[in-house]
Structure formats: C-alpha cells, structure tokens
Amino acid sequence: MSKIFAQGLVCPLDKNNVDTDQIIPKQFLTSVSRDGFAEAMFFDWRYLADGSPNPDFVINEPAYAGASILLTRANFGCGSSREHAPWAIQQYGFNVIIAESFADIFFNNSVNNGMLLIQLSKTNIDLLFSRCQQGPQNWQIDLASQEIMFGNNAALGFKIDADIKQRLLAGLDFIGNSEQLNSQITDFEQSRKASQPWLG
Amino acid sequence: MAQTFSAKTLYQKIYASHVVGKLNPSTDLLFVDRHLIHEVTSPQAFSGLKLANRTVRRPDLTFATMDHNVSTQRRSMDAAGETSRKQLEALAANCDENNIPLLDLTHPDQGIVHVIGPEQGLTQPGMIIVCGDSHTSTHGAFGALAFGIGTSEVEHVLATQTLPQQQAKTLKVEINGELSSHVTPKDVIMAVIAKLGTAGGNGYVAEFCGSTIAAMSMEGRMTLCNMSIEMGAKAGLIAPDATTFAYLKGKAHAPQAEHWDAAVDYWQSLYSDADAVFDHTVTIDANAITPQITWGTNPEQVIAVDQSVPSPASFSDATKRDAAERALAYMGLEPGQKLTDCKVDVVFIGSCTNSRIEDLRAAASVVQGKQVAAGVRALVVPGSGIVKRQAEQEGLADIFKGAGFEWREPGCSMCLGMNDDRVAAGERCASTSNRNFEGRQGRGARTHLVSPAMAAAAAIAGKFVNIAAAANEKGDWA
C-alpha cells in the first residue's frame, strides 16, 4: 500500500522549544479571519526591525524557497494554544512537520487542520539534519506505509496513532464524526442532570 | 503488586465519568461541563459553526469574557485600537446571537478568564473545563480536569458540548514541607519546571499533592496549576478538600443551598486512590526552595535568585547549550553574572498566574512605605473587577499608587502585550506572568519571571533582590 501524503523541499529549523509566540506573534491575533497568516509566520525571526527579510533566518534562504516539509527539534509548538500557529505554517506552505517532539495542544491543532506531524527519536532527527547539511533535500512522505522516502530507495519509517492516520487519510470531518454519537450525548446530558442537578 | 483492579488516579476518575461514547478503539468522546471563551480564539469558531449551519448546543454551559486585548487604561472597546475593537465586537455579537452569558467591559466583574471562572463559581471539582487558552490548566486547582484547546476544538465544543480525547499518562508531583518566608507558590512551580523541563510533562496530566499543597490557599494552588502547561503537561490537578469547598461556598454559580451537600458529597470522592499507580512520580522538598527567577527565554531556564547565571558550557546536552547561548545573547546577560546586580526597567504585577488578591497582598506588603526606584515603570493589573475592588477596600491600591505604581483595569495586559501594554526592545522586565519567551512582552523585550513579592522588591530597588535574604526578622526587607 502506498499513498503519498506530501512531497517537496525540506526546510531545517535547528531549534528546540520553538514556541507559538515565535511561530506567530501577538499582533497578528486580533484578526477574526482564519486566513492571511502566511506572512506573519516566524515574524520576529523572519524580518528585521525595518521590515526587510532577515538574511540569516533559514526560511529566507533562497535554497529553501517553496519548502513544504519543516524539520525541527524537541517540543515544537510549546506555549500558547493559538491555532493561528498551525494556520500560519500551513498557509505558508508546510503540510508536514518532522520533530523530536511536539507540544500537545499544537499537535492537536495541526492535525485538526489536516497537517501531518511526524515524531522521531533524537538519533533519527540528528540523522535527518545531517542529510540536510549535504544540500537541499526533496523527500516524499508516504502516510499509508508510514515512511519518509529520501530517493534512491532510502527510507525511514515512522510511527503514528492509528486514529490520526485514518483521519488524515480519509479527511474526516472533525465535528461531523462526533455528531454520529448525538443520541449518546443526549443520554449523557439527561443522566448528568439527574445525578448532578447543580451542573445544569 | 498491591494495586487493586479498580484503583484509579483522580484524572482517571474524572475522565471515566465523562465518557459519552467511543469514537474508535483509542479515542473517547468526553462531555464538557464548562466551556469558557474569550475574544481571541473564538471568532473563527463561530464563523465555522455558521458556515456549517450548526448552532451552539449548550449556551448555558458556555461563558464568555473579554480579557486578552482589552485596554487596561480605559474601559471602552476601541481603547486598544481598531482591530481589537472589531474582535471585541465580534465576541459580543456572537454571544448575543447564541445566548451565551458574557462579562463584557462594562460589567463590574469582568476580568481574566482564569481569574473569573473560579471567582464566579463556574469552576467546580470533578468538571471537565476547556477554553481556547493554554492556561486553562489553572482550574485544575479545584480538582477539575481543565485544559487549553485550539479554535477547531472550540468550534467542536460549541457544536457538540464534547471533545474527542485519548487517555493521558499520569504524573504525580509530591511536594512536602513548609515554605520559607517570602517563598511563594510561584517559586514552587518554577522549581518544579526547572527540575522537569519545558517538555517534561508532555503527554501527562500532573497531579500535585503533599503537605505543601494541603497547606496552600486556592490562589496558590491556581498559580501552581496555571504553570503546569509550562512544563508541557496537558493539565495540572489538585484533589479538592475543605479549602476548596470553603472557597466555592456562596460563589454566584456554585451549587446553591439545596444542592450544596450533595455536591460536596460528590466532591469528596474526587481523589487518587491510595494504591493508584502513576506513570511517573517526582518528589520535591519545599524546604529547599528559595526565590526563583528565569534567566533565559523559556521557563526551564530558571535559577534561585542568589545563584549566578549559568555558563552554556555547563550544559552537557548540545541543544540545551545552544539554547543557553542564544538565550544569553537575547537577554543581554553574561555567564557568572548575578541577577541581583541587574537593573530592571519595567515591573509587571498581573496575569492569570499572579493577579489574585493574595498576590497583590504579597506585593503590597513589600511595597508598603517605600517608593518605586527612579527610572522604573511599574504596573499592577488586577485579574478581575472583584480583585480590583477588594484590593481598593483593603488599601492595597493606595499602597501601590502611593509608591508610584500604575493601578490599572483588569486584563491580560503585559503578559502577552496584545494591547498597548508592552515592554520595549532591550528593556528588562520583572514579570509575575508565565512566559519568558523571546518577544512575548514586546519585540526584543527581556522578561524575567518572578513571584509578586520578588517583582515588587525589584520595583523598589530598581534591580533584582533576593527577597528572602533581605527580609529581616520583622518581615521587613529593606
């Protein structure tokens, strides 16, 4: 079985603990829209104080223009629960993030937007970073077979929660899926009201 | 093993009692007892709901406030700018359309969502509480399973009053002993984060227990649970006890007289069984905790205030070493430096971590009879209208104002600087908030997280002070 979830250029962001304040700073959170966050992604690192692109930030390197796979390190997406963070990353063009670990809320938010987050051991993350040092990388991510394919038949397997895999492959409606249990929700509400009337 | 088959942790009990049904083998649909919303993370959820022709299932279990981007100088909707006004108006319109109760800017009790939830009695033991804000973990202080969610999940809860969840792992943080004078719950949680790291709690729900917790006020417990997210924990949790029940009694939305005894009976069943097994346990000696301060740009980069700023070379892990180097450069600090030699420019006392009455009392006791140092800009931002009024009645506001502090209206304020309360580039801030991330309080701002007493002392001295060492036997410190 094979199903390519994503393929493209890899951008290596060699940092631990990238927090959601870095991914999208506060001044962009006053929007009431779900769109228009691509330019805000990594704003303080990406642009200098005068608004010009920071040439030292990896995202701005010409070699990584158009990247769609983000490679990073531990505890990516920690901090604030702002879903604007995965929105910004996705709207910039990344569909896949590979990291040693992710913060829980960021992980859920990303999956709820149809993004694939791959968690690998530190050893494997080190390996992927050293691959990136050899020059720009184009990888394919096969979600069905759970493999990152580097070309020339080289591949690295990854683990993923079976439910998340199913959701990503089937593109399930997050709310619609739960609404199938509507009558059970109603039953729960009734028994809750009977046993704990103070809860309403 | 002595474990009985039915032995459960508090988290497992709350989880099990909220299972509506199974979505698939590893995912349960859990009922949500209370959904708190605010202006920043809800507008897109309401738009999504409308787009799909869905309605709010339980507006009666939903509760809204305005806090993140409100001005703390004036109570008008446009006081923090045009885009903020639009967002606040969107919340008001969404609440109005869907019959959701809202504490708007004109309401005398308006305040930070994690301060008003408990104050209004909306937060109760055994509940599942969610909010589109990571510091929802605060409510775990009441023995509620409370955690932050994203906007897609906010939309899901609005539509169904449920949320798909998988069981988290359990972490027990046992803290025993008495805290020294001027050592606060803020110092305790910072010491815990220093020990476990910013990702140490990832995948876990942390339950705090032990004699230190038993002796702690509700305000202190809230500070502790508030910052559980800074070690990556899904939630922080403390079993409810007499202190919890006494806090809740008489609160506006707490169980009223006819249900009170039944509610307390139920709440008393909410504890981890003696033979319940946690996936991980850490033990902390409270006696050994001294006033803490962050030196870097994430909450695990913490030292006791009398220690020196560490050298990056002292970290054996290469990525931690790099992170330390970057943090020192951003913070404008040198290895070996004492933070007590470091001048501060701004002092912020506020946020969902430390803006409650007890925090303001602690800060005021340090400030009393003294003046803010020349060149220091100092703000006190109470967490809610109720806190503000109480502080005014107790004379705390006069102490702050008399000393040269600005006394503001309630809101999230300088914790995240969504409004105009920001720290300028290169300025050093002693902050009672919860995140010292790069740029959090303003681009280039240098944040040091401390307790309210430490922040107050820094305002007076114009530099960081070891408040515990400075305090003499009378409790006076300078």
Short description:
The complex is a heterodimer of chains A (200) and B (478). In chain A, β5 (138-142) and β6 (147-151) form a beta hairpin. By secondary structure, chain A is α/β, with parallel strands linked by helices.
Word description of this protein:
The complex is a heterodimer of chains A (about 200) and B (about 475). With about 200 residues, chain A is an alpha/beta fold. Chain A folds into two domains: about 5-160, Aconitase, domain 4; about 175-200, no CATH class. Chain A has helices at about 20-25, 45, 85-90, 105-110, 120-135, 160-170, 175-180, 180-195; strands at about 5-10, 70, 95-100, 115-120, 140, 145-150, 155. Chain A is globular and about 65 Å long. The model of chain A has no long low-confidence stretch (mean pLDDT about 95). Chain B has about 475 residues and is an alpha/beta fold. Chain B has three domains: about 10-165 and about 240-265, Aconitase, domain 3; about 170-240 and about 270-290, Aconitase, Domain 2 (3-Layer(aba) Sandwich), CATH 3.40.1060; about 290-470, Aconitase, domain 3 (2-Layer Sandwich), CATH 3.30.499. Helices cover about 30% and strands about 15% of the residues of chain B. In chain B, the strands form five sheets. Chain B has a five-stranded parallel β-sheet with strand order 5-4-3-6-7. A five-stranded parallel β-sheet of chain B has the order 17-16-15-18-19. A four-stranded parallel β-sheet of chain B has the order 11-10-9-12. The chains are: A alpha/beta (about 200), B alpha/beta (about 475). The interface between A and B is large, with 57 and 78 residues.
How are the SSEs placed, and which strands pair?
The complex is a heterodimer of chains A (200) and B (478).
Chain A: E1 4-12, H1 20-23, H2 43-46, E2 69-71, H3 84-92, E3 96-99, H4 104-111, E4 116-119, H5 122-133, E5 138-142, E6 147-151, E7 154-157, H6 162-170, H7 174-179, H8 182-195
Chain B: H1 10-16, E1 19-24, E2 27-31, E3 34-37, H2 43-51, E4 62-65, H3 82-98, E5 102-103, H4 113-119, E6 128-131, E7 145-148, H5 151-160, E8 162-165, E9 169-176, H6 185-196, E10 204-209, H7 211-214, H8 218-226, E11 235-237, H9 242-248, H10 257-267, E12 280-285, E13 292-294, E14 302-304, H11 318-331, E15 346-349, H12 357-367, E16 377-380, H13 385-393, H14 396-403, E17 406-407, E18 428-431, E19 446-449, H15 452-461, H16 467-470
Parallel strand pairs in B: 3-4, 3-6, 4-5, 6-7, 9-10, 9-12, 10-11, 15-16, 15-18, 16-17, 18-19
Antiparallel strand pairs in B: 1-2, 2-8, 13-14
